[in-house]
Structure formats: structure tokens, C-alpha cells
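Take a minute with the sequence and C-alpha cells given here and flag any C-alpha cell that looks odd. Thanks in advance.
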Amino acid sequence: MTGWKTIMKALESWRKNLPPSQGGDGAGGQAKGDPNLGAADPSVTTIAERYKQAPWAVLVSTIISLRTKDEVTLVSSRRLLERSPSPESLLALPDGEVERLIYPAGFYRTKAANLRKIAAVLLERYDGQVPADMDTLLALPGVGRKTANLVLIEAFDMDGICVDTHVHRISNRQGWLGEAGSKSPDETEAILRRVLPRKYWKGINSLLVLYGQRICRPISPYCSRCVIACGCARRGVERSR
């Protein structure tokens, strides 16, 4: 396998040289059209920067982002956070208002219910503050390892590896996870924590989300444009461009 320093440097250079965003929602969401057009940070990163890494804003946007497109996450998160910039203000919203504000995010009713439960727990147990602890975050309703890692990284600048569908797919496809590979995001995270140098943990998600959206796509990836193709095992790739 190509060394990690070479891989990360190639991905960072690719990201840096993307053209300005074209299409999308004009606010850092996914660009439309050609996958090489439109430099944009993932939605949670964009929200984190907009709200100055406020833990509540990061947690809210991360919950909303699950199985939801970036452009929808951005709009839904901003709409909700304008009305509820704190757990207290979210609980003060009328019944059904959270659902309305985050629609059409995927599973918006379940997410709205979980956000209200999370707000109540934070007020009851943590003085309204989002805890900077993995196990405590995982105990919150609707929070899995992906969400917890992203909150720790974006809100608290702590080391973590956020594994979403892009990180999971690309890590398996490249052969980074060993001969057996990985069958789940949690397993992928565990393996990456062993093989990936710690200094790259925080940045790998934002790089691979963009790369997975534009180059290393689920079906028929753009292998001819890949900047890390040299060491790629191409596992599961049946057709490419």
C-alpha cells in the first residue's frame, strides 16, 4: 500500500485545487453536475464554522445530517438553530415545530423526537452543555459512533475518526483495512484507529466525503481521475470511468 503521508498529501492537494463552488445551494452544500466541479466542505463542517464550533449547533446538525443530503442538512440546521440556539429554546418550541423546521431531512420525525429528548437530558444532567466525552455522547438518544466522533472533532477539536458511508467504502476499496476488509462502519473505525497515524484522524472524514461524492463514487467511480489510484486494490469495482 502507498504510504499514508503520500495518500493524505494527494487528497489534501486535490481538495485545495478544486474550483470554487458551482451550483448547490450557494452556502457550502453539494455542487450539482460534474463531480469535479464545486469545492464544498461537508455540511456539518460548514455549520460548525458558521456557529464558531458551538457544541449544540454541531450536535444538532450532525443528528439532522444522518441519511440526508448536505444541501438539505444545511438549510434544515440553520432554520432550526435560528429558532433554537440552545437546548432550552428547543424545548420551548411548540409540539411539532421541530419536525416542521427540519423537514425534509430524512426520518425528520424520529430526529425531531430525539433532539427533544437530547435537549431534556442535557438540561437535566449536564447543565445544558454538550459533554466532550465519547461514552456520554453515545448514551444520548439517537447518537451513534459517527455522530459522537463528529461532535468531538468539530466542536471540541479532539482526536476521532468519523466513519460514514464514504469513509467505509473507500477504505475497503483501497485495501486499507487488510485482506478481510470490514463489514460495518464501526469495524472500519476500529481498524483505522490501529493503522491510520493519529495526526490524520480528524481530517480523513472531510477529505473522503468530498472524494466519495466526486471521484470514488459507489457505482462506476472515476478511477481515471483518481489521485490515489496507484496503491488502490479496487475491491468491489466492477466498472469505472
